[in-house]
Amino acid sequence: MRPTTDKLRSAVFSILSDMQEYPEVLDAFAGTGALGIEAYSRGASHIDFIDKDVSLLKINTSLMEKGTYNIYKGDYLKICSTLNKQYDLIIFDPPYNIYKTNEILAAVIRSSILKDDGIILYEEFYKTEFINHDKFKITDERRYGDTIIRFLCYIKE
Length: 157
Hints:
By secondary structure, the protein is α/β, with parallel strands linked by helices. The protein is built from five helices and seven strands. The protein has a seven-stranded mixed beta sheet, sandwiched between helices. Strand 1, helix 2 (about 35-40) and strand 2 form a beta-alpha-beta unit.
């Protein structure tokens, strides 16, 4: 597990605050839940967390108000198709070298979980090959040490 550093988390949410509000958030590959919890602390009204191992997630969300979050244990690619809602912000911080970016983004399209004006925050190792999906465009990209953060949105037709 590679928790997102405080410095990186602060930088990411400073950038996001300039984009739009994000009341409904999905933190996929949540790990410790640090990014989703940060979104909650900055005004998100509801967070859904997905991860295969939710032990740290349960501890870290214990101080959040009941009803403001859900925790789903399992694989994102399987769970996202069961989510019957749309999100303003989807956070992806997948484990390195296990998932391909185009697979993760294709699942967003198939399950229609991103609102039309929603944003995807995609964090990964800077050397990972990023294969975009043809429905998304990268609106911002920043490198912090060995980590790259990309912000994506739907391409308006």
